[in-house]
Amino acid sequence: MDDALVYLNGEYLPRERACLPLTDRGLLFGDSVYEVVPAYGGRPFRVNQHLARLDRSLAAIRMQNPLSHDEWRTVFERLTAPVQGQDQSIYLQVTRGAYPVRNHVIPAQVDANVFAFCMPIPPRDPAVAARGIRAITLDDIRWHRCDIKATTLLANVLARAQASDEGADEAILVRDGQVMEGTASNLFIVSNGLLITPPDSPELLPGITRDLVLELAQEAGVPHAHATIGMAELESAEEVWVTSSTREIAAVVELNGRRVGDGVPGEMWHRMDALYQACKERLRLGDECHDD
Ligand code: PDD
């Protein structure tokens, strides 16, 4: 992204010229929310859903969206236009702004800071995707509003570090015996042929990829359900997946050092992954796949 532009408060700037004051509340308090929107062939994927979730995150932290959805779309177009040849993830963040005095109290007059930039998504290697990933489970030490896509991600970062230390790609977080989600992904299991993901709750992010997987399952007649998942169900699942805008649908083939199913991505994963990839390809061709 070196020569690509960054959007900052209405301007498009080279990255080295895009600066925020040290007193920005996003920096001081993590007082900010964000989104990550993948763009394929220059077209943002599920953009309406991402913008709706941004509105919900902002409302939950007592802010209004400083930009209209049309303004956000223009930002996405401007950022991706020079790099259309490569898939991108668009990162955007809205902070509660910078104020002269560091004070926990939310200022009466809020002047948000808004920025966004693109990062290339490496081309998908089907052989790598078909190898699957490793995961560990960890105690979920995060707060009780994980449904807000807030930038206060230290617990997630530390859990991911522990996963890396143990040779794993993702940590699956467990609260009071219930499996919630990954550090930066949602969770699915396949149990007795049924595709299951934990229900919406303040303890997990309502993932855009997760919703798409459920819509695709519905269309394809794949039996699916929202249901709580305990450790025993996770450990005995035929398949375990994590989903996110950047990881898409990743099959977990090893959990806490033990094989999941046959130790390779399962039949259901192959089916859903193919549907997901087809959706991406339709978007490249200009069809707003499942973006209503
Ligand atoms: N994170 N849960 C958490 C905690 C996440 O951070 C993410 C995504 C997801 C999946 O959401 P979605 O399908 O909408 O990407 C679930 C992004 C990719 C990130 O922080 O980089």
Kindly describe this structure.
The protein is α+β, with helices and mostly antiparallel strands and 292 residues long. The chain folds into 2 domains: 2-120, D-amino Acid Aminotransferase, Chain A, domain 1, CATH 3.30.470; 126-284, D-amino Acid Aminotransferase, subunit A, domain 2 (D-amino Acid Aminotransferase, Chain A, domain 2), CATH 3.20.10.10. Helix content is 29%, strand content 28%. It is built from 8 helices and 15 strands. The strands form 2 sheets. Strands 7, 8, 9, 10, 11, 12, 13, 14 and 15 form a 9-stranded mixed beta sheet that branches. A 6-stranded antiparallel beta sheet has the order 2-1-6-5-3-4. Strand 11 (194-197), helix 6 (208-220) and strand 12 form a beta-alpha-beta unit. It is globular. The site of N-(5'-phosphopyridoxyl)-D-alanine (PDD) has 14 residues, from helix 6 and strand 13.
Main sheet summary: 9 strands, mixed
The overall average pLDDT, rounded, is 96
Which molecules other than protein and nucleic acid are bound? N-(5'-phosphopyridoxyl)-D-alanine
Helix content: 25-40%
How large a portion of the residues is in β-strands, by DSSP E? 25-35%
Q: In total, how many domains does the architecture comprise?
A: 2
| Uncertain ranges | none
CATH third-tier fold name of the largest domain = D-amino Acid Aminotransferase, Chain A, domain 2
What oligomeric state do the depicted chains represent? single chain
Helices, by number, come to 8
Characterize the overall form. Answer: globular
Report the radius of gyration as a whole number of Å.
19 Å
Task: Let me know the CATH homologous superfamily of the largest domain.
Answer: D-amino Acid Aminotransferase, subunit A, domain 2
